[in-house]
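1st attempt posting a full record on here, be nice pls
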Amino acid sequence: RRDGRAELHVYGTGMYDVPMEHLGVPHVIEHMLEERSAGRQTGEYFIKLSDRRGPIHNAEVHMRHTEYWVKAPNQALLDGLASLLKQFFEARLLEEEIEIEKGAMKDEVRIMASTPEKFSRLLAKGLLFNVAPFTFTETGTEDDIDKITREDLGRFRKQHYIPENMTLFVTGSVQYESGTYAERAERFHDDVLQRL
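the predicted structure (as tokens):
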């Protein structure tokens, strides 16, 4: 394989894991940790290298977890993963950047509401379960998004973004030829930490 992929799954952070009054919180967190400020501008690493030679990354909120991933040529995978983890753990949740991401999420809501095929599916689910249509999205409504505060995000991150809720998957040709699987995993872990 020419490309490798690493995925970090954070469980308990999906769209169905939050109370109704906090719809959209997992999605804002995902935007902030995947795209926004990390003190050092680690995101620039992806802007410079997101071409055929470097890594690309993305994130997505699912029903029961949030997934952060990086895909890169095998020789760049460890650097790409280290940069993604740095962005992930050092993002500072700055107020002005939260407002920018909330605006981006409102745009997503408007696009869904103006796309007949998408909105009709949401409407059908809402009618079936007697709830507002946007209950079944990771964003919630524009009003839900407006209610999200920095404190909400900080509490959610502190409660859910902990090692016990995380699983890392790596595929590709990251070569560790000798030793047990546990020993190879330990060397991989050490190699990533050295790049942080």
